[in-house]
Amino acid sequence: MNNSSSDSFYGLGTHEWIGIILPYKSQQNQQDGMAGFGIRRRVAIMGYHPSDVSQIPDDQIVFALVALPPTAGSGAAGRKMSVRLTQGDVVLGKFLDGSAKQNPIILHVLGRTQNAKFQSGRFGLKTGFVGSSKQNNLNPPNQKDGTPSQEFNADTPEGTPSAIKGATKSNRSSSNAQRLMKKGNLLGGGVDILKSKAKNIGGSMIKKTITGLF
Question: Is-contact 161 137, C-beta < 8 A?
Answer without folding.
Answer: no
